[in-house]
Amino acid sequence: METSAVNERRRFVRAYARGTWTMAALCAQYGISAPCGYKWWARYLAEGDAGLVERSRAPHRCPHRTAAGLIAAIVAERRKYGWGAKKLLAVLSRRDPEQAWPALSTINTLLARRGLLERRRARPRWPRAATVPLQSTRPNQIWPADFKGQFKTGNGRYCYPLTITDHFSRRVLATHGLLAISGAATRAVFLQVFRDVGLPDVIRTDNGGPFVSTGLHGLSALSVWWMQLGITHQRTRPARPQDNGSHERMHRELKRETARPPAATLRGQQQRFDRFRQRYNAERPHEALAMATPDSRWTPSGRSYPSRLPAPAYPGHWEVRRVCDAGTIKFQNVRIFLTQALHGHDVGLEEIDEDVWRVVYYQTPIGIVDSSTGEVTGIGRVSV
Questions:
Q1: CB-based contacts of 214, cutoff 8 Å, min separation 6
Q2: Does the residue 152 lie in any domain?
């Protein structure tokens, strides 16, 4: 026979009410103590059958319970930014350092109870090929840059977000939505950033346009301009987005906060990008910065954008040739094609063997020329 605790209690109190059994004998029959029997009898007299239902054993008062005001503040910040417990705790503690905020585990529990915590499925970690780590020791040493994947705004037009960050401080320097990926539009964004905050030592990009071309040394009009400014163009390995890992991580936040769903127009989308950049730089804590904000770790560059681009200076014993509009130079009565990205610019040629010359633009070697045949070979790309 199947029964329940409530049914057994009903049978117990009804048997005692008939007066046939003493409390001690009845408790012995049901296998409970006398105090327990008197407890259920008293509840039955006070509440009837409702008193026989099991009551919650939770304490009526818990001095360690998180205050409702703190819970409301945590939930509000989570819904506003979508950040995890670490970042929420860092932001709230910085905003009100005198308040005793709950622990990370408590915050996670509070968010989970309200359906605000996304549990991600654990995935196996597969070994990867060794890569040279991206390291910087000061602001403006390395600027990662890339185009975030394009998407359509509400009016059906495509938006191509160009993003630039400072690797050391994680500061977002630009998030600009373009109508298309073009060298001219990309240069305009970089020009504005250079004039606002100065020049970096290195700009790090992938191998896509307009950063890289298929020509000699991958030179493009954009990378040639960077060379003129004394900026090294550092390129990641093909199909290896993890080589710019911190930048790709920022892209995930950018997409989540500004493009789900997108704005109705490109102008509205740009306003979202601007708000995201302000929040990301001034409010969002970063674990890589010991939960500090990017603005607290960043300073403008000491290298300002020049009013006039300096001309290349090559040693006196080098040969100097100007690249014509067709992308060629004339050297030892041989017409040699280099790249149209350098048309109108002077390159230096350093003899390194008999009839073998190294081609240099500013301080960057870009190719090897065999003057007897006019053959040009690359010297390898600049990588991580």
A1: none
A2: yes
Smallest CA-to-CA distance from 365 within 343, 340, 338 is with: 338
With respect to residue 384, please indicate whether it lies within any of the assigned structural domains: no
Tokens for 377, please give them.
């070979």
Spatial neighbors of 8 by CB under 8 A, at least 6 apart, are 30
Q: Are residues 250 and 218 in the same domain?
A: yes
The pLDDT profile of the chain, 384 residues, written as one tens digit per residue, is 567 888 999 999 999 988 888 999 999 999 999 999 999 999 999 999 888 888 888 777 777 788 888 889 999 988 888 888 888 888 888 888 888 888 988 998 888 888 888 776 665 544 433 344 678 899 999 999 999 989 999 999 999 999 999 999 999 999 999 999 999 999 999 999 999 999 999 999 998 889 998 888 889 999 999 999 999 998 888 878 788 888 999 999 999 999 989 999 999 999 999 999 999 999 999 888 989 999 999 999 999 999 998 889 999 999 999 999 889 999 988 899 999 999 999 999 999 988 899 999 998 898 899 888 888 887 654 433
